[in-house]
Amino acid sequence: MLLSALFTVLAAPFARARQDASSLPTLHLADPPHQSYLNAGLSQQASALQNLTLGALSSVAHTVLAHPAFPEYSVRIKKSDGFCDAGVRAYTGYIDIRQARHLFFYFFESRGDPETDDVVMWTNGGPGCSSALGLFMELGPCRVYDAEKGPMRNPYAWTESANVFFVDQPVGIGFSYAEYGERVSSTEEAARDVAAFVAIFFETFKQFRGRAFHMAGESYSGRYIPLFAAEVYDQNKRLVETGMERINLQSIIIGNGYTDWVSMSSAYVDMVCTNSSVPPVASISSCVAAKKAVPRCLKWAQEACIDTFDAINCAAAQSFCNTRLWAPATGLNLYDITKPCDGSIEETMCYPITTQISAYLDRPATRALLGVDPFFGSKNFTRCSDPVGDAFVASGDMLQAGATTEYVAQLLERGVRVLEFAGTLDWMCNWLGNERWTRGMGWSGKEAFGRAEMRVWGVDGETAGEVRSARGLTFATVYGAGHMVPYDKPKEALALFQRWLANEEL
């Protein structure tokens, strides 16, 4: 969810290895505690890892993975079977960076064929919201509707057809944490951490080497994912040079993404003042006032944020656009304009299931099973962090509209497929704005994509939405879904995902 930044805007209106760079990673079995693990030496011989598999991992202690190509990174991982879906093998752990930043992750093997199915990494947005929301609310193998009853099997989980990671990033959200005053405040910085983790994982667990890999997310992941994928792609050259195998990056998948805020700006007005998805829901007076501000907003944003990037002037332009163009949506559920918020946005994010997820993850038994670091003690689980969101705003990360679409374009030019899907009832990162940037983005396939007509796609004989596709870029809408498509339309979201992985027409 794009939540932390929303509050901000509205308030303003790895053990270092001593081996040759081509050697295998080292391994160490350590107890979970926070500093004891970090101060331990990684002494076991590298040859012991030649046949390391996920099945060999301990369910009691973390196995620590490292590689000399990434001297500042290590990974703690353990089995965590039984907490989500009895039919799926699960693993949890931490990505440790310079012994100061620690990113928590969940990994679930596929219900299908984990030995051949693709690998997918999912992250939620914010900036500053935990991927536990995606796991326990949307596309994971279980959902948590009631903290006391615990997880219930999700028949429409994306683990039906893929091995899936859920990563809590950046530090400061979920069970991720930082020490010594460290923090992450830009997507570029976060991308380096994620790419290093991906390389260490694939290099260590050889059953996944060469497997098709997809990076996915929603909301502010519309900025995260293009940059994460670009870092993974560019990192491949360095991996090959050090004797490692390249990551087989096949595609990126973005749901209701915040990729180009400029294209999104005018769409904010159209979503509530026209019949774009539903009949107008805003007052006539607020729509008239907002429409008058659209030309100035777009001109100012183009000059200050796209043609040339002036951080101060661009921030001023964005502030003007948000203040004037968000006004008609005041009081609405910004994630589904057809429904009222169920509870306050501060407490439930409009969806009470989020409070149940937090309560479940605050249970000591749950934390013990997951191997949550003792650093947390009695601290509450952090669904979304305002300080993390504020840091991204302060760094100017949210202003990089033109830069983000250029990353998407460069991935397409290199054969990495791109899927942008959007629920038609979301206002925050709506389908209109996402359609506009996909059509306006400069790349060699722009004309072909622009000529492609929107056509209906469906599931089990029922219309599910519309789709346009050309030259590796696909844009799809999902009718009746808001910001969290896999939550609102789980069957349709799974069908979309499965067809995408199979490289089939939607």
TrEMBL record:
Signal peptide location: 1-17
GO biological process, one term: proteolysis
Keyword annotations from UniProtKB, A to Z: Carboxypeptidase, Glycoprotein, Hydrolase, Protease, Signal
The organism's place on the tree of life at top rank: Eukaryota
GO cellular component: fungal-type vacuole
SUPFAM superfamilies: alpha/beta-Hydrolases
UniProt-listed Enzyme Commission number(s): 3.4.16.5
Hydrolase as UniProt keyword: yes
UniProt key word Ribosomal protein: no
Family matches, as PROSITE patterns: CARBOXYPEPT_SER_HIS
GO molecular function annotation: serine-type carboxypeptidase activity
Pfam families registered for this protein in UniProt: Peptidase_S10
Family to which this protein belongs: Belongs to the peptidase S10 family.
Protein name (Swiss-Prot/TrEMBL): carboxypeptidase C
